[in-house]
Structure formats: C-alpha cells, structure tokens
Amino acid sequence: MSDASTAADGPQAPRPRTAAVIPAAGRGVRLGPGAPKALRALNGTPMLIHAVRAMAASRAVSLVVVVAPPDGAAEVKTLLADHALPERTDFLVVPGGATRQESVKLGLDALPAGIDIVLVHDAARPLVPVDTVDGVIEAVRDGAPAVVPALPVADTVKEVEPAAPGEPEPVVATPERARLRAVQTPQGFDRATLLRAHEAVVVGEGATDCAGLVERLGEPVVLVPGHEEAFKVTRPLDLVLAEAVLARRRANDGF
Ligand SMILES: Nc1ccn([C@@H]2O[C@H](COP(=O)(O)OP(=O)(O)OP(=O)(O)O)[C@@H](O)[C@H]2O)c(=O)n1
Ligand SMILES: C[C@](O)(CO)[C@H](O)COP(=O)(O)O
What we know:
Blueprint: E1 6-7, E2 10-11, E3 18-23, E4 41-42, E5 45-46, H1 47-56, E6 61-68, H2 73-82, E7 90-95, H3 100-109, E8 117-120, H4 130-141, E9 146-152, E10 159-160, E11 171-173, E12 181-183, E13 187-190, H5 191-199, H6 210-217, E14 222-225, H7 236-253
Parallel strand pairs: 3-6, 3-8, 6-7, 9-14
Antiparallel strand pairs: 1-2, 4-5, 8-13, 9-12, 9-13, 10-11
Helix pairs in contact: 5-6
C-alpha cells in the first residue's frame, strides 16, 4: 500500500495517518506459568516482536504504541531496540493496566496529534498477514468508523446459563451459525470514534473488544475478511500451531 500524499498532477489532501496500539500487558494465565505471554518466544523471537513486525509491515502504519506489562516497560524498550524493525516506523512504549480495555485506553492516551486512524492489535495475534492489516486500514479510509476482521464460525455455538464450577451447564439457546462470526484483530477505527467509545464506558460494563464499545455508541461496525493465521495464542496448543505456521512460511518463502 503506497502512502504518498501528492500525485504527479498536483497536491492532494494528505492521507490520514495511521497508528497501531498493541495491548501486550496480559499475563497469559491460560497459557500456563511463565513470563507474560507477549514476552514468550515463538521460534526464538518474543511474540510481541512478531506482532510489532506484523503492524509495521504495513506501509500505512507510521507509529506503533506498545502497551507493556505494568512492570515491563523497560524490558520491552530493550526488546524493541534489540530487534530489527522498519526505520520508517516510530515506536512508543507505555505501561498497561489491569484489563485489556484499560491497556488499550492507556495506549490511546499516548497517541500524538496528527493520527487519524487507529488499529488496535493483540500482541497475542502475532502472525496476522499484512494483507489483512491493509484491508482493515483501507475500509476505515473508505469511511467506516469501525472495522473488524472476522471469519465464519466452524463449530456450532451454544448459549448457556453459567453454572457452578464442575456442574453441567444448561443450554438456553443455539444461535444460527450462519449469522455468527469469530472476530480478530487488528480492529481499525476512526480515532475520534474510538476515543469517544472508550470514554463512554460505564465502570463494570466493559467489552471484550473495542468494536463492542463502538457498537454501544450506536455507530456502525463493519466486518472485513479475517485470516486463519491471525488466530489468538491463548492456550499451549496455540504455541505449537504458531510455530508450525512460522515453519511453513520459512519453507514457502525462505522467510
Ligand atoms: N491487562 C491486560 C490484559 C490483556 N492485555 C492484552 O490483550 C490481548 C488479548 O488478551 P488475551 O489473549 O486474553 O491475553 P491475556 O489476558 O494475557 O490472557 P489470559 O486471559 O489467558 O491471562 C493480549 O495481547 C494481552 O497482552 C493487555 O494488554 N492488558
Ligand atoms: C479482541 C479479541 O481478540 C477479539 O477476538 C478478543 O475479544 C480478546 O479477548 P481476550 O479474552 O480478552 O483475549
């Protein structure tokens, strides 16, 4: 994707500037004991570095804000300095909060003036392909205030009445699968809309993704195609899958 702001036949309006906020402050409890999830290695490189490279691979992204584990900002700055990253991209590191939503808000608060489009991308989705990133940015540039990459759901999904641990859970509904989508990141937003959505959150009534907050404002949220390789590393088997994807990429492209 080219980011030129002038054309041969004269000056045009400058392209909107895009930043990526990467919440990376989670512990990774479901992955099991160890370092914070974003700092764990995939093929010898921290997951966070894979995620940062995935964002910086888009020529439209001029700034990446990493939201680090609360006591890990210095370590993350060192990691960014120690790994090869594109020179055209700027990097900022801020400490995160107690929830993903709080961490994203801390990242948003660190954005400088002049950024119009914000991607929010989980460090835990280190392998998202650049075409998916660019597809999200393009849809925001085309005027959608909130854009989410998504895939059809493969399993049938049941809604349950939560039960005590160890007790069977009663099913209350089976949503029509053809209407369900599993959503991924990066989610892309018009900056002002995303900020308004975060500022409107009532304590105790958060959402598990930023797009959920925009929906509550009554603003439209649209989906674009996601990618199987943009899966979230959540449980131990996901690490095995992520390393297999990297091995396949190396075999295919010598990458
Ligand atoms: N307080 C938090 C919690 C989560 N995240 C980030 O949000 C993304 C998605 O969250 P998830 O995969 O659930 O990560 P964890 O919260 O670390 O996982 P777990 O729930 O297993 O502890 C991750 O990149 C994670 O680092 C964050 O920045 N700040
Ligand atoms: C944002 C997200 O990755 C979209 O699927 C997901 O909601 C994050 O959930 P988590 O359990 O907080 O990781």
